[in-house]
Write a structure and sequence with these properties.
- The protein is an alpha/beta fold.
- The protein folds into two domains: about 140 residues, Aspartate Aminotransferase, domain 1; about 240 residues, Type I PLP-dependent aspartate aminotransferase-like (Major domain) (Aspartate Aminotransferase, domain 2).
- About 40% of the residues lie in helices and about 15% in strands.
- Strands 3-9-8-7-6-4-5 form a seven-stranded mixed β-sheet, with helices on both faces. A four-stranded antiparallel β-sheet has the order 10-11-16-13, covered by helices on one side.
- α1 packs antiparallel against α9, α3 packs parallel to α4 and α11 crosses α14.
- The chain is globular, with a radius of gyration of 22 Å.
Length: about 400
């Protein structure tokens, strides 16, 4: 997909808003402006019905019921709500341990640290193998009756690893722990119609699935809802889980995006993503430069993800030289503007030099074969240029 003159290969950072989603949202920025919590007039009733429909659409996407869906501002808030909401209410109890995989998003790792520092929980990281898959034997050894919760993402945002959530769930539930799953990257990567049956709490993000920015959702299984403390208090909206006026246009947009991903065409789109991604990787591997794929091969990987290590180069220099012609992301995380090696790449065993040479390319439904060919040409040109500058 081209944005102006830029080929956009950073869809795991954010997807563009789908045109149909935008069209469905448009009326709610104009005539359909009622507050969904205004219960005394028809405009409020209409908006309430529309947000309820959106919740039902999101619920269908993951195999949940509408009353188990709470809208949030995005996956970061949702992940915080999951861990802090559960942990604060359980603080001081017998279950005082929380397990998180070593490759979780920072919006999971950070609230886990808060629970450790402020509420005396013990937080432990579950190791992963070189492909980023959770080591099930290690998880088995760590699970006990004192584990409150386990947080493992469905699909990794950097290297695209798809976890076996059903198998992981069986192990966690044998010990009575709560299973939280950050599924922000999952809707594009895999069919998730039964994901709610294997999890207790689940996080979603609108702008990772061709919906709008600023909206997310949390699934909380009905039997668990009395064990979650809200992060935001006020008027008691959304059954008291998250007070505040719901943003109707954003809710509608996320609902439509969810509906589009439950349709028959979603599977074919994923297959096309995988075909183009595989061609992109083959072309760069065969380009004459030392390029290797980081993370899993084949079906165990997000179909759009190509995390590639350009050995002997700096990822930041490559991406800088590609601007503004191609957009992608480094495999390094930046916090408060300070670059640091990616904890995900460290967890799978990459050394510092290879971590700094890794770039995440992520294709989208709108990426074309021409985009792939042009991207390969651009990257090869940049590698040639940087190689010559090093030898001068």
């Amino acid at each position: 997909m081209k944005t102006g003159k830029t080929i956009y290969l950073d869809h795991q950072a954010t997807t563009p808003l789908d045109r149909q989603v935008l069209a469905e949202m448009a009326p709610y920025h104009g005539g359909s402006f009622g507050n969904p919590h205004s219960s005394d007039h028809s405009l409020g009733w209409e908006s309430a019905r529309d947000t309820e429909k959106a919740a039902a659409q999101v619920a269908r996407l993951i195999g949940a019921d509408p009353d188990e869906i709470i809208f949030t501002s995005g996956a970061t808030e949702t992940n915080n709500m999951a861990l802090l909401g559960l942990g604060r209410k359980a603080a001081g109890g017998r279950r005082h341990r929380i397990l998180v995989s070593a490759i979780e998003h920072k919006s999971v790792l950070a609230p886990a640290r808060v629970l450790e520092k402020q509420y005396a929980f013990t937080v432990e990281q579950i190791p992963v193998d070189r492909q980023g898959c959770v080591e099930l034997s290690a998880l088995n050894d760590m699970l006990d009756e004192d584990v409150l919760a386990v947080s493992i993402m469905a699909v990794n945002n950097e290297i695209g690893t798809i976890q076996n959530i059903a198998k992981i769930s069986d192990r966690i539930r044998c010990h009575g722990a709560v299973f939280h799953c950050d599924a922000a990257q999952a809707p594009i990567a895999i069919p998730i119609a039964s994901l709610a049956t294997h999890t207790d709490i689940l996080s979603l993000s609108g702008h990772k699935m061709y919906g709008p920015m600023g909206i997310g959702a949390i699934f909380i299984a009905r039997l668990l809802q009395d064990r979650i403390e809200p992060l935001i208090y006020g008027g008691g909206q959304q059954s008291g889980f998250r007070s505040g006026t719901l943003p109707v246009p954003l809710c509608v947009g996320m609902g439509v995006a969810a509906e589009l991903l439950t349709g028959e065409g979603a599977g074919e789109k994923r297959r096309e993503l995988r075909r183009r991604r595989d061609h992109f990787v083959r072309r760069l591997r065969g380009s004459g430069w030392q390029v290797s794929l980081v993370g899993p091969e084949g079906g165990a990987r997000h179909p759009a993800n190509a995390s590639l290590c350009f050995h002997g180069f700096s990822a930041h220099e490559i991406l800088g030289a590609l601007q503004p012609r191609l957009a992608a992301s480094t495999g390094s995380a930046c916090t408060s503007g300070i670059p640091e090696p990616s904890h995900v790449l460290r967890a799978i065993g990459l050394n510092g030099e290879d971590s700094e040479a890794t770039i995440r390319f992520s294709l989208g439904f709108g990426t074309t074969d021409e985009d792939i060919e042009q991207s390969v040409i651009l990257i090869e040109e940049v590698l040639e240029k940087l190689s010559k500058s090093k030898s001068v």
